[in-house]
Write a structure and sequence with these properties.
This protein is α/β, with parallel strands linked by helices and 263 residues long. The protein contains eleven helices and ten strands. The protein folds into two domains: 181 residues, P-loop containing nucleotide triphosphate hydrolases (Rossmann fold, 3-Layer(aba) Sandwich); 67 residues, no CATH class. The C terminus is likely disordered.
Amino acid sequence: MSLVVEGLTVEIDGRRVVDGVSFEVADGARLGLIGESGSGKSLTALAILGLLPDGAKAAGSIRWNGTELIGMPDRELARLRGDEIGIVFQEPRTALNPIRTVGRQIAEAIRIHEGIGRREARARAVQEAARVRLPDPESIVDRYPHQLSGGQRQRVAIAMALACRPRVLIADEPTTALDVTIQSEILALLLHLVEDEGMSLVFITHDLAVLAQVATEGVVLEHGRVVESAPVSTLLTAPSSPITQGLLRDATATLWRPDGGIA
């Protein structure tokens, strides 16, 4: 299984914000999209799932196992979302519904794609909550997002994305709003779950040090264009583009090791 993006463009109200982006994610690969704010990395991820904002138009090619996704009817795309391709958004406070229990939200994709009843869905939600190491999963699934900490909400978001065991997970800066200690825990959890399931990962970040912990290949974006594509170890030790060199200097905020780990 593979995800192939070729010559992707995204225009918003006539302005091109993603310009000719290409990359491939093979089965089980871990690829990072990295760039500064406004580089087009999140729009690239949203284009894959057909979730671009109103007024945005994608062109080029996005193929999932040979099937073209650009132009696919939303009803067909909806069958892929969560089931074959999952996504964890940057800020769970806005991604989660404040008036629904987290258990119902974890189970929603399961009920849609597997057609199970409410009682079985709750039991599955408890299992998924335990899988992402939420405390007291039997109780926590009955709570609302505002009753959880930031780290717990992000674990809920991960549980939602992985509940149907997708083959590709897109993680859009999933730790940006968390403090360093919780960030490290979430990254370790995410990597463990991805490796445990043998799924592919597309990880979006602005931090090379974070990328080094979860991805092996990196694609660097600037102003919607790919400026460098290389193994993450190369981006850390011998970046060729000025933007990557700048990202490397910024990464000094987090301790990193050239072998691809976090010190």
